[in-house]
Amino acid sequence: MSYLVYPGAHHTRFHHALGCMHIMQKAVQTLRFKGVEISNDEENALYIAILLHDIGHGPFSHAMEHSIVEEVHHEELSLLFMEQLNKEFDGQLSLAIKVFKGEYHRKFMLQLISSQLDMDRMDYLKRDSFYSGVAEGNINSERLIQMMNVDNDVLVIEEKGIYSVEKFLVARRLMYWQAYLHKTSVVGELILTKILKRAKELVEKGIELEASKPLVFFLKNKVELSDFNKEILEQFSYLDDSDILSALKAWQFHDDYVLSNLCRMIINRDLLKIKLFDEKPEKGIVKKYKKEFTNLVKISDKEAAYFVFKGSLKNQAYSKESEPIRIYKKDKTIEDVIEASDQLNLKALSKPVTKYYVCFPKQILESYTF
User: Fold this and answer.
1) At what angle do helices 241-251 and 213-220 cross, to 10 degrees?
2) Which residue, of 62, 116, 156, 305, has the greatest Cβ tally within 10 A?
């Protein structure tokens, strides 16, 4: 929902998939030039895996994972799509699936697809920085790729590329707080999740809602990962952003107070108020403002929970627990970028930062004090 903050922000799965594959082609060329043996089959596997790595994302990305399907993560759906395509292409995706699942013996191939310095992050940071106009997120992906090498089948960055890695990590942190976790983007996505949950709740009560056939299917049925067969996967593939947006436009006129008002918030860009805190907000704050809102608009406490709620946001630019970014030094030793860097702020970037939020309607803003 970043377009609510930055009108130029545009990032579809199709754009991202093509961008990732383009960068992967550059990486394969660079590694081969440096003497890393990559067979034609391995090359194709890398291209297929990166092209399809996000195919399991639903409309509006992560909002779907917490609403119309039951906590099914997009990586799991991406794998199901790849396995189904593998049947249709007579096993030609087998090696790509093996790489994607981390089962292939050449470790660097998975690192190119999924790691703390992969083609995925290199594409979306540069793409989103450009389209949102958040210049701090711009990275030198060309330089990063040129500095890549492989040592003992593990991906490394040559020592002279360390400054580009530092810039990459700082840019990632800034993009999260300025774009992905911008408070307006966050509240927009939270409202969308609440809309879909409310729609599902109404449909379960037998109330008919105007929507596309694929969306109606997921509203009417409780779908968990184990339920996904070929037919359900096909239904999911028909969903895109336009299904959701057209539903919001129709539902804004529905009789249900919760559904119609939440839809109007997104369509009219008149969202819930969101306040961020460095520490956990005072206990009972949600209960207090829910009570205030129920008195104001005469709805139930359960309905008010769609408008007044709290939560937390977490951002960690670099994780010490995950696969490290390895710096290949001139003396042929390998060191974690955190240890190799002389930038003290990189150590700070490895610490998770948590912020807390409270969302509430603007109607109670006048009496809201901290």
Assistant:
1) 80
2) 156
> Which of 53-57, 222-226, 358-362 is predicted with the least confidence, judged by mean pLDDT?
222-226
Q: How confident is the model at residue 58 (pLDDT cuts 50, 70, 90)?
A: confident
> Angle between the 183-204 and 257-267 helix axes, to the nearest 10 degrees?
150
Q: How far is CA 311 from the centre of its chain?
A: 18
Q: How far is CA 197 from CA 61, 316, 347, in A?
A: 16, 29, 40
User: Tokens 């089962």 sit at which residue?
Assistant: 103
Burial of 199 (0-12, 13-18, 19+ CB in 10 A): buried
Is the pLDDT confidence value at 176 over 60? yes
pLDDT tens figures, 286-344: 999 999 999 888 899 999 999 999 999 998 889 888 899 999 999 999 999 988 887 76
Alpha-carbon distance of 346 to 340, in angstroms, equals 10
Which helix (H) or strand (E) is 275 found in, with range? strand 273-277
DSSP-assigned letters across all residues of 107-170: HHHHHHHSSTT-HHHHHHHHHHHHHH--GGG---HHHHHHTEEEETTEEEEEGGGHHHHHHHHH
Strands 154-158, 148-151: pairing is antiparallel
